[in-house]
C-alpha cells in the first residue's frame, strides 16, 4: 500500500462497512473496543454478509462470527500465507485488477532472493538489510521493466508464487494451531464474497512482525481486487481518541506532519533532503516551513530548512527505546502528556528506573496517574529518587474546542461543552503559554541554535489561543495574500513558496468555512459516504484508491456500489465520492488516468514492496549535483514479502527455517528472555470494555470498578485441571521479567491446541491496572517483553512466554 496514505488509517470508513459481503476480522475485538464498527458490520450481516473472526480467544466479536478460528498468538502470517498460496493456485485472483492495478507484471532484480529465512542484503553485524536487491529491473527511462505475462519468472507475480508455495494448509496448521480444513474454509468464504473487508487492530500490530502482517493483508486484498472499492479495503481500527490526528500531526519518530519524511543529520540543505526523498516532497515541506516560520522562511534561507531539528537515523527513538536511553542517563527532562507510561510500556521496570534517572518529570493528565507517582510505587524508596515531579492538571475532551480525526480520516470539529474545571487547562493553552514564556527567555539571543524558537510564527491569539486558528494553519494559506486557500486543488496549483499548510493532507479543511464542523447526515447514495458530514483527508475523498473501482475505460465495475466514473462528455472524473486520481481532467486513456494508486511511484498497488525511486534520470546531470528523483516507494525494513517468523519468545522453533526462527531484524530490548522449558505457555494481553488502556481515567470511576474490579488470568479448563486451579483461585503468573498474582478465570473461551503436534496453551490477561487510583491492581506489563517491530517500533505486547501456578 502507499507509504503516505497507509500509515494506519482505514482505506474506507466506519459507515462503509455496511457495504461489505464478507469480513475478515483478525487481530481486532471490535465488538468490545470499537462498538461503532460493530454497528455497521451488523447492518451488513443483516443483509447476509459473512463474518470470519480469527483470535486466540473467543470474544464478543467472535460471538457474531459465521466462522471462528482460534489461533496461536503471533502466527497470522502463516495462515495468511496459506490463503495467498490458495488464491494463486486456484486462480481466484481478479486477473484484470492484478494486471492493471498492481505491480504483478513488473520485473524484480535477479539479485533478489530469500534463502533459509534470510532475504538478500542481510548484514549479520548490524542486523539490518541493505535493500538494493529488492529492486525492479529498470529500463532506460528508469521505469520498471514489464513482463509480457504473469508466467515470466522474473515478475512480481512469479516471485509471489514461489514465495508462498511453501505455505501449505498443513504447514499453516502446524504453526498456527488452526486446523487445515478451517483455514481452507476461511480462504473459500473470504474469496467468494465480494467486496470483502479486512479489519485489524492490535492483534495484528503488536508483534515483531506487525508491519509484515498488514502487508499480507495488502497482498490478499490486491489479489482479490478489494482495494479502492466500497465495502472493501483494509481497515485499521485505531485506538486512542484522536490517535489518527496525532499521527497525521507527526506523533511518529520518522515523520513531519502529513507523513513527510523527517530530515536527517546528513541533510545539510533542502537539496540534500530532496535527493534522498524525491522532489514530490518539495512543495509540501516548503509549505510546512512557511506555516511554521512565515516570512522568516525565504527562498534565500532554504525556507528555514535548517531551523528544523535533524534526526540521527542510526538512533531508534521509538517509545520503548526512549526509556532504554533514559536508563543510560541520556535524558534530563521528560514531558509526559496524556500517557500513563509506567503502566502501558512493556517490561515496565525499564520505565520505573528510567524515570528515576531524570532531573525533572512533567506530567500533564486529568488524574494523578501512576507515572506521576512513580516515586511512591510500593517497593520504591522516595528518598532514593532525585527526580523533581511537576503535575499539570489537564482539561478533558468536553472542556475544550478543537478537531479530532477518526480512523475514517474524518476531521471532526467540536465545541467546548463546559469550562475547564478548577485549575485545569486545555493542552493547547498549556503549550501556548509555555512557548511564549520560553521565547521570552531566548529574547535577543543571536545563537543560531535559538533561531528556530525566535523565528517561529506563533499567532494563535493573545490570551487564550484559538484552536480554530490552529486548524486554519493546517488547512493552509496563500502567503502572498494572507487568505485561506479554498481547496487542496488550489494548494497544489500554488507555486512553491507561495502557499503554507501545517499538514498538507488537511489542505482545504477550513478553506470554505470550517468543513470539519459540517453535520449533514443524509446519505443520498445509500453507500454511507456522508460527504457533507465533516471533512475527510485528503480532499474529502471517502474511499482511498477509488480509481481502482473502475475498469480501464473508467466505468464502475460494481453497478450496485458506484463510487466514481469518467464523465466523457464533461471530460472529468465525477461521481458519488471525490475521485482519488492524479488529475480530475485526465481521462482513463492517459498515463495519469490509468494510475489507481497515485501515491505509489509506480502508480499501482504493491504486491511486492520494491526499492524504487521514480523519475531518476539515469545519467547524472552535468552540473555535478546528484540527480533528484520524484518519489520513493514505501519500503519495509524487514523484507519485500511477508515471511513467517516466530515471536521473540515462542513455544516452538520455526518449522519453515529452524535456523532463522525469529525475525533476523527484530529489535529486542528486554535483557531477560525466557525459554519454553521454564515458561511453557503463551501469554497474550488485551483490553476490556470496562476500562480504558492504562486505566488512568476508568479506574477512578467507581461504577466501572464495580463491574471490573481487578485483573485476571484467563486459562483453559485443561490448564486449570493440570495446575489444580479452579475459577476464582489466585494464581502466580511469571515470565523471565517478573511475576504477578491475580485471580484465575477458567473458561471455554480459550482451548488447548496443537503446535507442530504438541499441546499448547494460551493464557489471556487484561493490562489496565497499576498501583494508584481508586482501584489499584497488579500491572500485566511486569511480564510482557520489550521486543519491537523493526520498522514501526511497536512492542510485541501480544506474545511472550510465561508459567503459571496456584498462588
Ligand atoms: N473499552 C475499551 N475500548 C478501547 C480501548 C480500551 O482499553 N477499552 N483501547 C483503545 C485502544 S488505544 C486501542 S489501540 C484499541 C485496541 O483494540 P483491539 O485491537 O481490538 O484490542 P485488544 O483487545 O488489545 O486486541 C484485539 C484482539 O486481538 C487478539 N489477538 C491477540 N493476539 C493475536 C494474534 O496474534 N492474532 C490475532 N489474529 N489476534 C490476536 C486478542 O485476543 C484480542 O481479542 O481499542 C480502543 N478501544
Ligand atoms: N500489555 C499491553 N500493553 C499495552 C497495550 C496492550 O494491548 N497490551 N496496548 C498499547 C496501546 S495500543 C496503547 S494506545 C497504549 C496506551 O497507553 P497510554 O497512552 O499510556 O494509556 P492511557 O491510559 O490511554 O493514557 C492516556 C492518559 O491521558 C489522560 N488524558 C485524557 N485526556 C487528556 C487530555 O485531553 N489531555 C491530557 N494531558 N491528558 C489526557 C488520561 O487521564 C490517561 O491517563 O498502551 C499500550 N500498552
Ligand atoms: Mo492504542
From TrEMBL:
SUPFAM superfamilies: ADC-like, Formate dehydrogenase/DMSO reductase, domains 1-3
NCBIfam families hit by this protein: formate-DH-alph
UniProt feature, compositional bias: Basic and acidic residues: 581-592
UniProt keywords, alphabetically: 4Fe-4S, Iron, Iron-sulfur, Metal-binding, Oxidoreductase, Periplasm, Selenocysteine, Signal
Domain Molybdopterin oxidoreductase, residue spans: 9-436
Location of this chain's protein in the cell: Periplasm
Main subcellular localisation: periplasm
Source organism (scientific name): Desulfosporosinus hippei DSM 8344
Record GO cellular component, one term: periplasmic space
GO BP, sorted A to Z: anaerobic respiration
Ranges of residues in domain Molybdopterin dinucleotide-binding: 683-800
GO molecular function, one term: molybdenum ion binding
The protein's name in its UniProt record: Formate dehydrogenase major subunit
Record field: transmembrane: none
Region spans: Disordered: 579-599
Co-factor requirement: [4Fe-4S] cluster
Family (UniProt): Belongs to the prokaryotic molybdopterin-containing oxidoreductase family.
Amino acid at each position: 500500500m502507499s507509504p503516505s496514505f497507509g500509515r494506519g488509517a482505514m482505506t474506507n470508513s466506519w459507515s462503509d462497512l455496511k457495504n461489505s459481503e464478507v469480513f475478515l476480522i483478525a487481530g481486532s475485538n471490535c465488538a468490545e473496543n470499537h462498538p461503532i464498527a460493530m454497528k455497521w458490520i451488523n447492518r451488513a450481516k443483516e443483509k447476509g454478509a459473512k463474518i470470519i473472526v480469527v483470535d486466540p480467544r473467543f470474544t464478543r466479536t467472535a460471538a457474531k462470527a459465521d466462522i471462528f478460528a482460534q489461533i496461536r498468538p503471533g502466527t497470522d502470517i502463516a495462515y495468511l500465507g496459506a490463503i495467498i498460496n490458495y488464491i494463486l493456485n486456484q486462480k481466484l485472483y481478479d486477473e484484470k485488477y492484478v494486471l492493471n492495478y498492481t505491480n504483478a507484471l513488473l520485473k524484480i532484480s535477479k539479485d533478489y532472493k530469500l534463502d533459509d529465512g534470510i532475504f538478500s542484503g542481510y548484514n549479520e553485524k548490524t542486523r539490518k538489510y541493505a535493500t538494493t536487491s529488492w529492486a525492479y529491473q529498470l529500463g532506460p527511462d528508469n521505469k520498471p521493466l514489464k513482463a509480457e505475462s504473469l508466467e515470466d519468472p522474473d515478475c512480481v507475480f512469479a516471485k509471489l508464487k514461489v514465495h508462498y508455495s511453501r505455505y501449505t494448509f498443513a504447514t499453516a496448521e502446524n504453526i498456527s494451531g488452526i486446523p487445515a480444513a478451517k483455514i481452507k474454509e476461511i480462504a473459500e468464504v473470504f474469496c467468494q464474497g465480494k467486496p470483502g473487508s479486512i479489519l485489524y487492530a492490535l492483534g495484528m500490530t503488536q508483534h515483531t512482525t506487525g508491519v509484515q502482517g498488514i502487508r499480507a493483508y495488502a497482498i490478499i486484498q490486491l489479489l482479490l481486487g478489494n482495494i479502492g472499492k466500497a465495502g472493501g479495503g483494509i481497515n485499521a481500527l485505531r485506538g486512542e481518541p484522536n490517535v489518527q490526528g496525532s499521527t497525521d500531526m507527526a506523533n511518529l519518530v520518522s515523520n513531519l506532519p502529513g507523513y513527510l519524511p523527517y530530515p536527517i543529520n546528513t541533510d545539510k540543505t533542502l537539496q540534500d533532503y530532496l535527493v534522498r526523498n524525491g522532489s514530490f516532497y518539495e512543495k509540501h515541506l516548503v509549505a510546512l516551513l512557511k506555516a511554521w516560520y512565515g516570512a522568516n522562511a525565504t527562498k534565500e534561507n532554504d525556507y528555514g530548512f535548517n531551523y528544523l531539528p535533524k534526526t540521527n537515523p542510526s538512533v531508534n527513538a521509538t517509545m520503548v527505546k526512549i526509556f532504554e536511553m533514559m536508563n543510560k542517563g541520556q535524558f534530563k527532562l521528560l514531558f509526559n502528556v496524556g500517557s500513563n507510561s509506567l503502566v502501558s510500556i512493556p517490561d515496565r521496570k525499564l520505565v520505573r528506573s528510567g524515570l528515576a534517572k531524570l532531573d525533572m518529570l512533567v506530567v500533564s493528565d486529568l488524574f494523578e496517574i501512576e507515572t506521576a507517582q512513580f516515586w511512591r510505587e510500593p517497593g520504591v524508596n522516595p528518598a532514593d529518587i532525585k527526580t523533581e515531579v511537576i503535575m499539570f492538571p489537564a482539561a478533558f475532551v468536553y472542556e475544550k474546542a478543537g478537531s479530532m480525526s477518526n480512523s475514517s480520516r474524518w476531521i471532526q470539529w467540536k465545541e467546548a461543552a463546559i469550562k475547564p474545571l478548577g485549575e485545569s487547562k486545555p493542552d493547547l493553552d498549556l503549550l501556548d503559554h509555555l512557548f511564549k514564556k520560553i521565547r521570552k527567555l531566548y529574547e535577543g539571543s543571536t545563537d543560531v541554535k535559538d533561531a528556530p524558537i525566535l523565528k517561529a510564527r506563533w499567532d494563535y491569539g493573545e490570551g487564550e489561543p484559538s484552536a480554530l486558528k490552529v486548524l486554519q494553519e493546517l488547512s493552509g494559506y496563500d502567503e502572498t495574500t494572507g487568505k485561506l486557500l479554498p481547496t487542496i486543488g488550489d494548494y497544489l496549483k500554488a507555486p512553491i513558496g507561495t502557499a503554507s499548510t501545517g499538514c498538507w493532507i488537511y489542505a482545504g479543511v477550513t478553506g470554505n468555512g470550517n468543513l470539519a464542523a459540517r453535520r449533514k447526515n443524509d446519505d443520498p447514495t445509500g453507500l454511507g459516504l456522508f460527504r457533507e458530514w465533516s471533512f475527510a483527508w485528503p480532499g474529502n475523498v471517502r474511499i482511498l484508491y477509488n480509481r481502482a473501482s473502475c475498469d480501464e475505460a473508467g466505468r464502475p465495475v460494481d453497478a450496485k456500489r458506484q463510487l466514481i466514473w469518467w464523465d466523457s462528455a464533461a471530460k472529468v472524473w465525477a461521481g458519488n465520492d471525490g475521485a482519488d486520481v492524479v488529475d480530475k481532467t485526465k481521462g482513463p486513456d492517459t498515463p495519469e488516468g490509468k494510475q489507481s494508486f497515485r501515491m505509489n511511484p509506480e502508480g499501482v498497488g504493491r504486491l511486492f514492496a520494491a526499492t524504487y525511486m521514480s523519475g531518476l534520470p539515469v545519467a547524472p546531470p552535468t552540473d555535478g549535483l546528484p540527480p533528484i528523483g520524484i518519489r520513493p516507494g514505501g519500503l519495509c525494513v524487514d523484507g519485500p514479502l511477508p515471511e513467517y517468523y516466530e515471536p521473540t519468545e515462542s513455544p516452538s522453533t520455526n518449522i519453515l527455517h529452524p535456523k532463522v526462527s525469529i525475525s533476523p531484524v527484530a529489535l529486542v530490548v528486554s535483557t531477560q528472555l525466557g525459554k519454553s522449558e521454564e515458561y511453557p505457555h503463551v501469554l497474550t494481553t488485551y483490553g476490556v470494555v470496562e476500562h480504558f488502556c492504562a486505566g488512568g481515567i476508568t479506574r477512578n470511576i467507581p461504577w466501572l470498578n464495580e463491574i471490573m474490579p481487578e485483573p485476571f488470568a484467563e486459562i483453559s479448563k485443561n490448564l486449570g485441571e493440570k495446575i489444580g486451579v479452579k475459577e476464582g483461585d489466585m494464581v502466580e503468573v511469571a515470565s523471565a521479567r517478573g511475576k504477578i498474582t491475580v485471580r484465575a478465570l477458567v473458561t471455554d473461551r480459550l482451548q488447548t491446541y496443537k503446535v507442530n503436534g504438541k499441546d499448547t496453551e494460551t493464557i489471556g490477561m487484561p493490562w489496565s491496572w497499576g498501583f494508584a487510583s481508586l482501584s489499584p491492581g497488579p500491572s500485566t506489563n511486569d511480564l510482557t517483553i520489550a521486543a519491537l517491530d523493526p520498522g514501526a517500533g511497536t512492542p510485541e505486547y501480544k506474545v511472550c512466554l510465561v508459567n503459571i501456578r496456584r498462588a
